[in-house]
């Protein structure tokens, strides 16, 4: 075994710990800034890959010169998120090196606009037990949209990692595809902003259509602090459309139920095996509130529910009270 192999095996656990910690920190930073991500993934070079790169790049001091022994990739949904994540990384880490791959391409070259950062931990981080001993280690952070990630994955599958690797007769088609992906990223940003603008300005009245955005606006009007997942919206909407039919009708149902919802929720939560239940806790999600409203106001919906005890009895009691 060479000295380099031995040194790498000794230091690799530190890089693994660095990758885990930076991945967890980035997940937390994204959540704190309300940035949704498709994925945050870490990796540390395998010994074989490390040694191959040492030979390929002719490093004299590879453990000092190599920037990507450890890496974390953030895959976000929107182009506009790149700027927000850029700000987070520059605030939270010491950035040693930054590059934007799209800025390195000529006008006639295809590519994807992935942002690459080589960072070190800030000194104050190193005081925490899980960060001790990680000073002076570098880690690469890649940030790209999900469409950029798709482009990178497919072009890599085609073995076209570099522009010069591509047969001339394929370059025009790949350039066009690259431009389409860039345009799609921009269009998704536009649609997202249109959605936000719609939700901010939609007027709820008798003529309002029942769609995902108007439903969210209505629910947030009466239940602003309830959590909801994107996956819940579609399934709840199907039920609201079938058993209520319109935004105006569902709002009437909400108003009818408002006087008893808090009391009903607290009673239900006390039966939900929460020995330490606090009346300040919020047990229902936004989807749960919507379904409870249908339970209370729609005989047809309630007839098909088949809830177990004690929830059936609790709901039946409150159905009779309104």
Automatic annotation (TrEMBL):
Q: Which residues form the RelA/SpoT domain?
A: 42-166
Quote the protein name from its UniProt record. Answer: RelA/SpoT domain-containing protein
InterPro entries tied to this protein: NT_sf, RelA_SpoT
Please name the CDD domains in this protein's record: NT_Rel-Spo_like
The organism's lineage is: Bacteria, Pseudomonadati, Pseudomonadota, Gammaproteobacteria, Oceanospirillales
- Note the Pfam families from the entry: RelA_SpoT
Name the PANTHER family for this protein.
GTP PYROPHOSPHATASE-RELATED, RELA_SPOT DOMAIN-CONTAINING PROTEIN
């Amino acid at each position: 075994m060479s000295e380099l192999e031995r040194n790498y095996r000794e230091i690799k656990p530190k890089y693994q710990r660095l990758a885990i910690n930076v991945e967890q920190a980035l997940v937390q930073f994204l959540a704190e800034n309300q940035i949704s991500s498709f994925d945050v993934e870490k990796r540390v070079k395998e010994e074989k890959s490390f040694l191959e790169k040492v030979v390929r790049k002719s490093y004299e001091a590879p453990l000092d010169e190599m920037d990507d022994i450890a890496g974390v990739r953030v895959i976000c949904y929107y182009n506009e998120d790149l700027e927000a994540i850029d700000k987070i990384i520059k605030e939270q880490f010491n950035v040693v090196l930054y590059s934007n791959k799209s800025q390195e391409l000529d006008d006639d070259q295809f590519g994807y606009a992935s942002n690459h950062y080589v960072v070190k931990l800030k000194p104050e981080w190193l005081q925490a037990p899980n960060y001790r001993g990680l000073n002076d280690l570098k880690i690469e952070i890649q940030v790209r949209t999900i469409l950029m990630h798709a482009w990178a994955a497919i072009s890599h599958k085609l073995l076209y990692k570099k522009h010069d690797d591509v047969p001339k007769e394929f370059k025009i088609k790949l350039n066009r595809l690259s431009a389409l992906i860039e345009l799609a990223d921009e269009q998704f940003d536009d649609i997202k902003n249109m959605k936000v603008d719609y939700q901010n300005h939609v007027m709820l009245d008798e003529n309002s259509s029942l769609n995902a955005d108007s439903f969210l606006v209505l629910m947030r009007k009466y239940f602003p602090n309830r959590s909801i997942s994107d996956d819940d919206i579609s399934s709840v909407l199907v039920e609201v459309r079938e058993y209520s039919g319109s935004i105006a009708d569902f709002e009437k149902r909400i108003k009818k139920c408002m006087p008893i919802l808090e009391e009903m929720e607290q009673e239900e939560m006390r039966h939900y095996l929460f020995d330490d239940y606090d009346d300040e806790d919020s047990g229902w999600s936004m989807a749960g509130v919507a379904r409870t409203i249908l339970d209370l106001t729609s005989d047809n919906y309630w007839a098909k529910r088949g809830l177990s005890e004690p929830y059936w009895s609790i709901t039946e009691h409150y159905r009779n009270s309104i």
